[in-house]
Amino acid sequence: ISAIEPDCERFAWNLLEREKVAVMPGVSFGDAAAGHIRVSLCQPDDVLREAASRLRHFANNYERSAA
Are 59 and 25 in contact (CB under 8 A)? Predict the structure, then answer.
């Protein structure tokens, strides 16, 4: 997600606030993962599809200045 938002923590918190989708900022797993997010796949397929749709919508409409 670094091409959308350099601060993966900010991205993760905004995603949770705006779309109600929780992910982990990559930096939580070390500097090598900064600029990424981590997604758990431990949900039923329909929940994962909805979360992916919300993530796609959020990423497509993300504005750094509003974050």
Answer: no
3-state secondary structure of 67: coil
Q: CA-based angle 13:17:11, to the nearest 5?
A: 30
CA distance 29 to 65: 26
Please tell me the predicted confidence (pLDDT) of residue 15.
Answer: 97
Cα–Cα distance measured from residue 36 to residue 30, given in angstroms and rounded to the nearest whole number = 11
Q: Determine contact, residues 37/8, Cβ cutoff 8 Å.
A: yes
Percent share of the chain, pLDDT over 90: 93
